[in-house]
Structures are given as C-alpha cells and as structure tokens.
Amino acid sequence: SGFFRRRIAAKLGRALQQPEDVLIPTVSAVSVSKKQISADFRLSVSTLRANGFLPSSGDIRQQTENLASQMKCDNEVENISVDREMIFFTVNRKLLVQKMLEPFEKHEDVKFGFNSELLNTLKKGTTLVEYSSPNIAKKFHVGHLRSTIIGNFIANLKQSLGNNVIRMNYLGDWGMQFGLLGAAFDRFGSQEKLKQNPLQHLFEVYVQANKEAEHDDGLMQAAQSFFRQLEQHEPQALTLWQQFRDITVKEYQSIYKRLGIHFDVYSGESEHLGQVQEVMQQLQSRGLLKTSGNGADVVDLSPDGDLSSVCTLLRSDGTSLYITRDLAAAVSRRRQYQFDEMIYVTDKSQSTHFQQLFQILSSMGHSWSYSCQHVPFGLVKGMKTRTGEVVFLEDVLDEVQARMLDNMSRSKTTKELDDPEDTAEKVGMSALITQDFKGPLQADYIFDWDRILQSHGDTGVFLQYTHARLHSLIQRNQQVDTSEFDPNLLQEQASIAMLQHLLRYDEVLYQSAQDLQPKHLVNFLLKLCHLIASAHRVLPVKGSLQDVAQARLRLFHGASSVLSGGMKTLGIIPVDKM
Ligand code: ARG
Predict the structure, then answer these.
(1) Which positions are annotated as active-site residues?
(2) Which of 437, 489, 434, 471 is nearest to 559 (CA)?
(3) Which of 20, 160, 333, 503 could bridge 1 with an S-S bond, Cβ 3.0-4.6 Å?
C-alpha cells in the first residue's frame, strides 16, 4: 500500500505545496465501499485542516471541491471523487493486484506491510517493556495474565517495527511477605515439596503463615526479625530467599515457554535496594524531601506545596516502599539500558502509582521521565476453573487445554493430530488472547469460557481455523508454481475486497504503535478471516484452470502470510492443523 499512498501524497503535495512525506500519514486506506463509491483511499479535509495543512476558516465543502479539482487522475490513480468533506481515490485494479501480491513470491519470509512509508515515519530506538511481574509466593491472578499477554504483544509489535526491545519481568521479590515466608518456612515448609512444586508450596506456606500470624504474635515477631535480617543481608536469610526466588523463576520460565513467551531480563524489587540511598540523596539535595508527622520521609506532590498530597518514600524505621524501589529501578534501568522509552503494563488500579512515579522522576530533573508510560488495563471477573479459583498461571493453561480438547473431540471437523494436547492449548490460548484484545484495554469484562471458545463468530478459534485451512490449501498445492501470475485473473469482487483490506495493514500497525491497543490488529485479522472465508467459497483452486489456480494461490499465500504474521505479533502461535 506504500506505493499508492505515496502516489496520492505526491498529488496532494503538489496541490498544497508541501513535501509528500509529511502528508503520507494523512492518506488512509478504506476497505468499505460507500454508496456508489468503491474507493481504496481517502483524504479527510478536516484532518488536513486540523494538522495545519489547510486554513481552518472558510467553507469546508468548497475547500474539498477545490482541493480535489487540483488533483488529476492518471494510470495509477484512476478515479478521484468527492463526498462531503472527503476525497476518495480508486487505483488501477490490475496495479492493485500486482503491487499487493508482489511481496509474496517467497511468501515464507516476507514481512508484508512493514516496509511502508507510513511506518517509517515512526521513531525507532530502544524500548524497555516491563510486564507480567508476578509476586513470589502470592497468587498469579488474572491481572498478571493480562499483563503478560498485553506486554508480550507490545514487545512483539515494537520489535517488528524495528525497535531494539528489552523484555523485562519485574518480580515482586521483596517486602514484608518474605519475612513471613522465611519465618514460616521453618515451621510449615518442606524442602522436598519446594522442589516438587515450588509455586504451589510457597503459596501454601504463605497462606498458612498469614492465617497463623493472626493469633500468633511470636510468628509475627519472627517474620519482622527475618525481614530485618534480609534487609541487612544476613547470609543465612539471604540464602533461603535466593532459593525461593531461583526456584520460582525457573518454574515461571517453563510455564512462559508453554505460552511462547520469554524475557530478556528477570529483574525484581530486590534488585535496586542499593540505589535507594542514592535516590533519596538526590531528592534531598533538590530540597524535595520532607518529614511527615510520624517521622517518615515524604515527597510533597501537592500543587501548592502544602503537604495536602504526599508520597511516602521511607518509613520511619528506614525501610523502603514499593514506589521507592520503583524510583531506584527506573533510575538504574535508564543508566543501564539507555532506553528511549519505557512501558509499564499493569492493571489500572496502579495508575496513580505510576503517575506519582513519573512526577517524582521529573521533579528530580530526569527529562526522560516523559518517555515513560503506563499502559493500564481493566479488571476481568469470573475466570474460574472447574476446580475453583485461578491461583497459578498453569491453572489457566490446563483449563484452556482441557476445555479445548473437549470441544475438539466433539467436533466433526477435527483432524487427526500428532499432539492434540499441544494443539488444544495453542488454540485455547488464542481464544483467550483474542477475547482479551478485542475491546479497549481499559474496559472491565466478565470472562466466559464457552463464549471465548466458540468456533464460529469472532473468536481466536476462528483465526486458527482459517490459518490451518490456508495452510493445508498451500500444502496440497505445493507443486504449483506461483512465481508468475496474471493479475487480470484476480478481478473478482472477493479478491479485490481482500486486497483493499490488506491495504490497511500498515495503517493498523501504525495505529497500534500510537496507542498500544491490540484491538486494531485483532479486529483487522478477524475481518480478514471473513474475507478469506468468502474467497474460499467463490475462488476455488481445485478444479480451476492452471493459470487461474496459480493466481488464486498467490492471493491465498498473501492472506496466509499476513494472518500468521499478525497472529504472531498478537502473541498467538498459529497452528497448521486442527
Ligand atoms: N508485582 C506487581 C504486582 O503484582 C506489579 C509490578 C509492576 N511494575 C512496577 N514496576 N511496579 O502488582
């Protein structure tokens, strides 16, 4: 689509006497045909006005007419028409087919859509994405699952757009809970169970410890003393803590692997305690620290400096808080990675926390705080498994797999599979991800297994099914040479509609890069699957003449390549058979 977008931008550039490259983002692809207009691209005159390319005064319809009359049709752009405040462009049909399917000759390795003028206007650099970030010995709740899949999507997207991406997991591996855990492990823990099922066992010990601590002051005191030992780096306490941490990380790594997710760095709250002092000194020297009534060190965040809104950084006993550790972590990450942007993915209940974090960083004079951003998401209710509540990530995976296997065994279309469990898990997870990504991330929703796992309608199962069907079509016709094809044989409505839709791909990626919302891509792929389904019905390969079959296969190669690339960006692992 870059080819056409650039041609139109050049026409517009001549009319407005502006360089074409600044105008490229204003040319949008339209895949809907409105009234009699079946167009491929659109210019919105109000957008041009809003961006200062046209005077904002005067009659906008008149302006639209004038602008359109200054742009001439040619062999590439065959028709220009006006509808209210919009100018529509229709490109040459043969060229549309040619240009869109050109990249797919060697369809295995194209990164279709990424080689685009529009995407080239995006800044590139080092992006640190922090996501998942579960807490040791605590529950891995739905919020952590969302953070995991959303963060993975953002990291994939940024990476495919040419950024150097650092994927970071920031574990909740410090704080009073480790005092309690350490003290209680002596009483209720077992090294053997810890090795067998670490996440489960630490969680059990922690739950029991919390229960006992309610009426056992001795345990509470032991917990405080254990945490103090930790803070003072007492070797014996530290060794046990390190064991808890190592074993947890190892276990998580293998579960993330099931999801096709990896992290470059496992960091955690414990990691930058050494830098807390440094941060406190910087705040002190800028005169930003105050002492509160109860002897804590606080930063005044109120606009009038009247302490009406403060953020505590050190308790009166000198121990740090969650935000203190985040400050130290941010400062040292910037130093270590020199990131151009840093993205934190957590549920929206932490929005204030991150606002305060960025505000304090900025008041410390760190101008890079403006390149830090929090991507908040809403709450999910009702994700239960057959055995009850979701406690671990593994529970979700097991549940998704079991339910999907069940559905597959009841479906008549299920193919014979080498590893049905593996396929069930991948298809099931894609169902979960698709459901989760369809709406705005901020929205809360109620989880429903049956709805997400449906094979019809806009689900992840439908995405996988379409992918598998394309894969088998391509497999079956491997011997057909598609390096040459005749674009005149792809002029049916079903083919043109699909190519028009593909024209929008770079725009969808562009939009996703701007607001980091996966909904643009998910909905684009779902629509693509509907178009593929229609194409399957009216553009059969089997039984067609050789040259027709060639051309149609080339079209399906293109669709398949965009679909699987898009699915991978979302964090969905495409299956070849189901
Ligand atoms: N461990 C935290 C939690 O479970 C999430 C960490 C988010 N990241 C951060 N830098 N604070 O709530």
Answers:
(1) 138, 141, 144
(2) 471
(3) 503
Closest ligand 1 atom to 172 CA: 1
- Which amino acid is present at 23? L
Q: How far apart are CA 211 and CA 180, in angstroms?
A: 11
Q: How far, in Å, is the centroid of ligand 1 from the Cα of 133? A: 6
CA of 139 to the centre of ligand 1 (A): 13
Query: Closest Cα to residue 438, out of 366, 526, 507, 535?
Result: 526
Element (H, E) at 28: strand 27-29
| Segment holding 324, helix H or strand E | helix 322-337
State both tokens at 501: 């839709």
Taking the CB of residue 379, how many other CB atoms lie within 10 A of it? 15
Residue 133, ligand 1, Cβ within 6 A: yes
Per-residue b or e along 147-170, where b marks 16 or more CB atoms closer than 10 Å to that residue's CB = bbbbbbbbbbbbebbebebbbbbb
By most ligand atoms within 8 Å of CB, the mutation choice from 170, 203, 333, 373 for ligand 1 is 170
pLDDT value for 447:
86
Residues in contact with 257: Cβ distance below 8 Å, sequence separation at least 6, in sequence order: none
**Helix, strand or coil for residue 44?**
strand
Which three-class secondary structure state does DSSP give residue 380? strand
Q: With contact defined as beta carbons under 8 Å apart, do 467 and 575 qualify?
A: yes
Reply yes or no on whether the pLDDT at 412 is more than 90.
no
pLDDT in tens, 79-104: 999 999 999 999 999 999 999 998 77
Stronger pLDDT, 261 or 120, i.e. the higher one? 261
- SS3 annotation, 222-236: HHHHHHHHHHCCCHH
Token pair for residue 338?
Answer: 């020199």
Tokens at 278, concatenated: 């440094």
CA of 343 to the centre of ligand 1 (A): 12
Residues 6+ apart with CB under 8 A from 259: 148, 149, 152, 397, 429, 571
Q: Positive or negative, the Cα torsion across 460, 463, 467, 473? A: positive
Cβ atoms of 313 and 299 within 8 Å: the answer is yes
Go through the domains of the chain in sequence order and give each one's CATH number: 2-91 (3.30.1360.70), 126-271+326-381 (3.40.50.620), 386-570 (1.10.730.10)
172: Cβ below 6 Å to ligand 1? yes
What is the tens place of the pLDDT at every residue in 131-165?
999 999 888 888 999 999 999 999 999 999 999 99
